[in-house]
Amino acid sequence: MGIAVEDIVNLPLLEGASIVTAKDRVSERIVEWVSVIENPVENFVRDNEFVLSTGIGCYGDPLKLLKFVEDVYNSGASVLAIATGRHVFSIPAEIIQYAEERGFIIMEIPWEIRFADIVHEIMSCLIDLRQGQADRPKDVQQQLIQMILEGKSIGQLAELIEGELEVAVLIFDEKGRCAAGSANTDRIESLKDGETDKSIEIRDSHHPMHARARKVDDEEGQLIHFTIKSNGVYKGDYYLLCEADRELSLQELAIAEQGVAAAALWFSRDNAVMEAESRMQNEFLLSLAMGHQMSADHIDAHAEFFRYDLSLPYDCIVGRPENLERLHLENPSYEKPALERIHTFIKDGMLYAAENVHRRLLYAYKNAEIIIYLETSNGTAADTANQFLDLVERRFSHLLPEVVFSWGIGRQKDGVWEFANSFTKAKAALDMGRNQMGIGKRTYFDETQMNRLLLNLAITKDVQQITSSIVAPLVEYDDQKGMDLIHTFSVYRNNCGNVSQTARKLNLHRQSLLYRLRKIETLTGRSIADPDHSFLLELSIRVWKTGVQNMEEHLDSILERNKPAADGYH
Fold it and tell me: Where exactly are the structural domains of the chain?
C-alpha cells in the first residue's frame, strides 16, 4: 500500500525538482516509505522506498556515486532523489544510462529544499492513505460475517471479494469440488499443475498474512493460492486469478485473506455461528466490566440472548497467564495451543471447573488477562473462589504444566450494575498482588484491612491525581539518578524519623541521608518535619506501591504542572 511516484513529484514542495531517468515509470512505481541515506547502503534500504541523498560520501568520485546508485537500485527502492548543488553538481551520463536501462527513477532536487520538509510531506501523504484504507479489510470482514449469519451462499461471498479486488476467484471444497467463483476452472487447473515446481511463497514480501499463500505465474497470468482451514483442519482451497502484471497490494491481500477466512467459516457454519456468538459474548461482558453506558433494555436483550442470569451474585476474578509467550519463545517445541486459540482453550477449562463446583460462569478476555464472573452466595465467596481456582490450576497443571497464573478476586455484589465496580476491585487486587508478592499468587480485594484501604484509595481518581503529583517527581529522579528516594523515605518512616537508625539501616553517612531527605522535600514540595506532609508522603507512596496506578501515564504532565511549586519550596 503506497502512493505513486507521480503523486510525489506533483507535490508543491517539489516544484523545482526534476525527473532525470525512467520518466515513463512514475505512474507505475509506488512509494511505501521514505528515508535519508548516504554511503554505505548495505541493508538499510527496503522495497518501494523513496531514498533521499546528498551524495556526500561520493564527492568528486563518479565511480563511487555509480556504486551507490547500484546499491540503492539493488535494494528495491522506487526512487533515488539526489540533492544537487553542493556535493553532486549534476548526474553523470553513465549513471543516467545505468538507471534508464533498468527503469530506475532518479530525481534531482535543488539543494535549497530541506530533506525534513520532503520527509514530512511524503509521510503525511502515506499516513492519510493508510488511515483512509486501514478499516477496509475490517469492513469487508464484517460484511462477510453478516452474510454468513444471514445464510448467504458461498457464491455470494466469492462475488463480494471479486468485486472488491477486481480479480476472478475460485473456491474448492475439501473433496476438490468447485464450490464457487467465476474463474475459469481449466485455467486454474493448468496453473495448479505447476505449483509444486514453480510456486513461491509470498512471505518474501514480509507481510505476516502471506505465510499461507503461494503464487504460480506464467506469461498470461498468475495464480495466488490459499489453503482454507478451520480450527487447523483442511477445508478446501481458495484461488485468485490475476493478470500477469498485476501486483496485489498488502491491503488487497488482507481483503483476500478475509475472503479465505469467510470461506472457512461458511464450510463450518455451525462452528462459525458459535465463534461469532462467543465474540459477541466477550464484547458484551467486557462492556459490563468496563462500565460502558448501556440501557437496561439493551442489557436485558443481550442477557436473554446469551442465557445469562445477571441478577445472581457474582465474584469477579481477573487472571493472567504469566509466561505463555516466554515459554514458547524459549522453547519452540513447547506444545501449547496456537495463540489465537489459547483463550478458547482456557475458557473450556474454566467452564469445566465451574460445572464441578455447580456455579454459573461468565467469561471474557482482554489482551493478556482473563475476566471471570463466578456465581457465588453470601458467606461462601472465598471458599467458592478458592475451590474453583484449585480445580482450574489442577487441570492446567496437566495441560499447561509450565504456565503460571496470577489471580485477583473482587468482592461479590448483587446485580448487573455492580459488575464494573467488582471488576475494578479484582483488577486492582491482581495488580497489587503481582507488584507486592510476585506472580503466581491469589490476592483478594478484602484480604486484609490495610490492603482493602489501600486498594480502595488506589482506584479513586482524586487519590490517583494526588499520588501522581507527589510520587511522580521521586520516580523520575530515582530513574535518572538511581538514588532510591522512595525506599529512603519508607525506611526513614519505619524508623520513626530517627536519622541515625535510618542511616545505619541504609548503610549511609548521616549527611548523605540528610541530603536525600532534603531532596525529597524539594521534589515534592512537602516538609518531612510537618506531620501532615509526612503522613501524605507515606500514604501516597504506599498507594503507589500497590501497583494499581500506572505512573508513567501521568509523569510528564504532573512534573510540568508542579515544577514551579517544587522549585519554590524552601
Answer: 3-133, 136-267, 275-454, 460-567
